UniProtKB/TrEMBL annotation:
This is OFA family MFS transporter. Its main location: membrane. Keywords: Membrane, Transmembrane, Transmembrane helix. It comes from Ornithinibacillus sp. 4-3. The keyword Transmembrane applies. It is found in: Cell membrane. It is a multi-pass membrane protein. GO terms for cellular component: plasma membrane. InterPro entries: MFS, MFS_trans_sf, Proton-linked_MCT. GO terms for molecular function: transmembrane transporter activity. The keyword Ubl conjugation does not apply. The chain crosses the membrane at residues 46-65, 77-95, 101-122, 134-154, 174-196, 222-241, 247-274, 286-305, 311-330, 342-361, 381-401.
Amino acid sequence: MKKLENKWMRAVLPALLIHCSIGTVYCWSLFKADIATYIGRSVSEVEWAFSLAIFMLGMSAAFGGRFVEKDIHKSSLLSALFFVVGMVATGFFIYQKSLFGIYFSYGIVMGIGLGIGYLTPVKTLMLWFGKQKGLATGLAVAGFGLAKVIASPLMEKLLGERNSEGVLVQGTNVYMMFFILAGIYSIMMFIGYLLLKKPTGYSEEQAAIGHFSYKQILKNRTFIGIWLMFYINITSGLALIAQEKGILMYIGFGAIGLVSSLTAVFNAGGRIVFSSLGDRLKDRNTIYKIIFILSIAPILLIIGFDGLGNSIAILIIALLCIVNAGYGGGFSSLPPLLADRFGINSISTVHGLALSAWAFAGLSGNQLSAFILEKTGSYDMLLYVILILFLLATLISVFVVRSNKASLEKELFVRKKKQMVS
């Protein structure tokens, strides 16, 4: 039994089981057109189910942080229930050809499971890994990123053969796929629920949790800066990632599948590399400066070569890889940065509030690039807008996100002590 009492069995493995399950939300692009065809709706109508799922992920994390803080076992089980029930219900409503049923099941029910499940293992990982918080969260969040790579072949196999036009030969496989996957992920998440455990001897400091003030943190200058920085990174990343295929086609680069796999690897790798690098730095906020500067550099080079053109394919691919790595690294570096600034005891609550930025970025990222292309028809203009956003995020990182080690937890303790004295 003692062999099971270690950070790999009690933190890393359950985190990967949970995150590799819920991370399959990013496989949406593989079957959204099949759902639209089967239920007789347009892809743009069906697309809102995914946007709603990401929005609910962020909002359920924002409001569920304190619940996760109190009991990781209940939260991991609740996450599994919402995610699996949502997946089964999605299959049922696809069979019933109900668009609003899909919005409810995939967007709302599964979305809640995503948010609670995303938060649940994070604090446990940081407790087990101590000074290597970045590595810990990087491993877990990498599971969320790698889920697409792992699940995509399985989903394609379950969906079945397609004709020359890319349409499924048997449309019934669309809803059956959800039923089968629900069974697989219910087992994975339940094992994660059984294994997940905080280090022996650790007990929640209920006093610290009780003194937590939502109002105080939402007014905190550092938190606002981190929220804006995180929001801009996701929005900029999504704006470019959403147009990845279109940009490659525009410059005449044919190996789109190869680049897609390459960027997926960079997305997952960035989650581990950037957050692990943060463990070696005095201030984890420096990671975001590095992410933004690395993202800005290829854009400036592309603009210097007079915009998008078929002669700078290497630069375009480099930009897509770097932005994907920074997109993933922004997620994995967030919890350790928040823990440094606001303390470990209320990290699930603070992290949940910060993830609300993901909710709004999920609605604005894709739409931003679509709006720019609709109005201007220019990928060059899209690059200019993304460049401005990354520059703004860099300024926020430098001038708004403070570099001191004072935590909100300490601020609240000092304030309460003063109140008791007075």
